[in-house]
Specification:
This protein is α+β, with helices and mostly antiparallel strands. It contains seven helices and 13 strands. The longest helix is centred in the middle third of the chain and has 19 residues.
Length: 322
């Protein structure tokens, strides 16, 4: 099911004439469980899972600010309700993700467990966390990572989308920003005019055994008129996932690690960038200049240093201009 299909069904639901109870429509004839989208008497959007009468469940109701879970035992219906109309798009992503998870499940207990699990997983994506605001350098760094993620997704097929999403480790504060089976990629974003990049620890350019390591430098210029923000890039990525049936929950979980939702990153819309060019370097070539755990005394820790970019041309793999 695509987002276009889902929005078409919402249009049908909203035009139903029913003054009492739910206005509901089965989400798809291909879905084995009885899964319905609906609006309640107050007009709030809901997702309903109807269970056979012989199934007995013990479910704790959960009422959060923007999302709630209710179990109507007398009718054996589990309901997820959206309490904030500002999150319609995110609610659609929840529905599409859950649909893909349960559409082929024959056992009602298993489908109900997945329904509740998905609610608990997605509920966090509807909540803003009160984290310290990002500095300009952090905003620029996140922009660069999202630009690279978007490029990787654009160059992939639909089968690869989720594995690429999972490869993005930047928000989890791991040593490298992208981790694949055969190589890792460290992304550094700098203003076009700057000659240096910053290495923030002795682990960032540490090579893993039997894996490649690449340094990808994203050069940007600030442009508040024609540039893109973090939010703009996230919207691009989400649209790609919706179009190609990717699992958006992987993306939302990643940005949630930094305390953000798709809505709250709008606070950084006053920071906009244009990517001018990217340079990709192979850190595994002999002679690549770096300080890392394996080549500094063990007594040294918490290492931070600057890298002069124009000395790296012998290790260049690829250059792209935009």
């Amino acid at each position: 099911m695509s987002l276009l299909d889902l929005n078409s069904k919402w249009e049908n639901v909203l035009h139903f004439k029913n003054k009492e109870g739910y206005k509901a429509l089965r989400i798809s004839a291909e879905c084995v469980p009885d899964l319905f989208i609906a609006t309640n008497i107050e007009g709030y959007r809901c997702l309903l899972l109807f269970l056979p009468s012989n199934i007995e469940l013990e479910i704790n109701e959960i009422d959060k600010e923007k999302l709630s879970l209710t179990y109507f035992q007398n009718k054996n219906i589990i309901v997820i309700k959206l309490n904030d109309v500002g999150f319609l798009d995110l609610f659609n992503d929840l529905i599409l993700s859950l649909y893909e998870k349960i559409k082929k499940i024959n056992d009602p207990k298993n489908s109900s467990e997945e329904f509740i699990y998905s609610f608990n997983k997605w509920a966090a994506f509807f909540e803003d966390k009160l984290n310290t605001k990002l500095s300009f350098e952090e905003i620029q760094g996140l922009f660069g990572e999202l630009f690279v993620l978007n490029e990787l997704l654009d160059d992939s097929n639909s089968v690869e989308l989720n594995s690429i999403l999972k490869s993005w480790k930047g928000p989890y504060d791991t040593a490298n920003d992208f981790v694949f089976d055969t190589k890792n990629i460290e992304v550094k974003t700098k203003e076009e005019s700057k000659l240096f990049i910053k290495i923030s620890s002795e682990y960032q350019l540490e090579k893993e055994f039997d894996k490649g390591l690449e340094l990808l430098i994203v050069s940007v210029k600030i442009d508040l008129i024609n540039g893109e923000s973090i939010h703009d890039l996230l919207i691009k990525i989400v649209k790609c996932l919706r179009t190609n049936s990717g699992d958006a929950s992987i993306l939302y979980k990643a940005i949630n690690q930094k305390g953000f939702t798709l809505e709250s990153v709008k606070q950084y819309n006053n920071h906009k960038f244009i990517v001018v060019k990217t340079h990709l370097y192979d850190c595994n070539i002999d002679g690549f200049p770096m300080l890392s755990v394996s080549n500094i005394p063990q007594e040294i820790t918490g290492l931070r240093y600057k890298f002069r970019v124009n000395t790296l041309s012998p290790f260049l793999i690829n250059e792209k201009k935009y």
